[in-house]
Amino acid sequence: MNFDDFISYLCSSVFNSVEKKDVKILQMKSGAEINFSALQNYRSLTEWEAMHEGKEVASIISEERIRTLFQPIIEAKTGEIYGYEALSRGILRDGRIMNPGRLFSSAKAMDLMFNLDRVCREASIRAASKQGIRKKLFINFIPTAIYEPSLCLRSTAKVLEEVNFDPAQVVFEVVETEKVEDFAHLNRILDYYKEKGFSTALDDLGSGYADKSALLMLKPDYMKIDMEIIRNIHLDEAKQKKLDEFITAGKEMNLTILAEGIETIEEYNYLKGKEIDLMQGYLFGKPEEVPMQMLSFR
Predict the structure, then answer these.
(1) Which of 42, 47, 146, 255 could form a cystine bridge with 152, CB 3.0-4.6 A?
(2) 132-173, pLDDT tens digit by residue?
(3) Region(s) of the chain under CATH 3.20.20.450
(4) What is the DSSP letter of 67?
(5) What's the CATH architecture for 65-280?
(6) What is the DSSP code (8-state) at residue 78?
(7) Is residue 133 classed as helix, strand or coil in its secondary structure?
(8) How far apart are alpha carbons 269 and 205 in whole angstroms?
């Protein structure tokens, strides 16, 4: 959408007030004179830009302009690739990637999280099939976007069948646990996944909201220890103690433990001495459209 189209789009909507400084900014951006009285029913430039962004997000979802990147997950003992995390990126009309944080926050503000979550989930499966991935595929899902598992995940099952992708390869990662108020509902979702042959993971352990109590309530197959714990862990005794607590809890529940966000050799060397099963981070490989087949790190 060019600037003139943007202004026309704004003028077709209903707002309450406008600030004169915003009109001046618009004038500077466009190099054209803008009639202030014609815009007197509109709010601020921030809202106009948010509205424009919202239209972009809606079109990304409706046109399924999602690009999937794959980040390798390695086995701690062997250094071999165990699987990949699928990371979704929204593509703007001009081909640029929309900031992931803004994509999801805008979708949430527009009450489109269910739609975005579904489109990303299905795009991840299609991309993994196209790339010939036959290892574990970790896919994020937002539990608050799923109201009835059997209905909401029906299209996901259909895509899996269409591309002949084995559900046993798929690990669904629970994200945004801090938004969950009804853990009984989340447990129903996870139980449904398990009944259909999927595995489940609890993401972001140690990030400030996902903790041992969540592990006990949700009983996932995998636990992912957040990069907030991993960052410079070789220098921080408090983080080391926290890590040991998570490892103990995970082993007691017979979970597969994954440390994510590993970026330095020092972090890696420290973690090698711990009972960690899987590792992930830029040290091993960045997210790429074509999944890495061999590690550059040894």
Answers:
(1) 146
(2) 999 999 999 887 777 777 777 788 889 999 999 999 999 999
(3) 65-280
(4) E
(5) Alpha-Beta Barrel (3.20)
(6) T
(7) coil
(8) 21
157-186 burial code (b ≥16 CB/10 A, e <16)? eebbeeeebeeebbbbbbbbbeebeeeeeb
DSSP letter string over 152-188? HTHHHHHHHHHTT--GGGEEEEE--GGG-S-HHHHHH
Q: How far apart are CA 209 and CA 177, in angstroms?
A: 7
> pLDDT digits over 259-288, tens only?
999 999 999 999 999 999 999 999 999 999
Is the distance from CB of 92 to CB of 58 less than 8 angstroms? no
pTM of the model: 0.80
**HEC assignment per residue over 233-296:** HHHCHHHHHHHHHHHHHHHHCCCEEEECCCCCHHHHHHHHCCCCCEEECCCCCCCECCCCCCCC
- Max CA separation in the chain (angstroms): 69
- Residue 103 CB-density burial (10 A; 0-12 exposed, 13-18 middle, 19+ buried): buried
204: left (phi over 0), alpha (psi -120 to 50) or beta: left
Distance in Å from the first CA to the final CA of the chain: 47
Separation of alpha carbons 123 and 159, rounded Å: 9
CB 253, CB 268: distance < 8 Å:
no
Contact 292, 80 (CB under 8 A): no
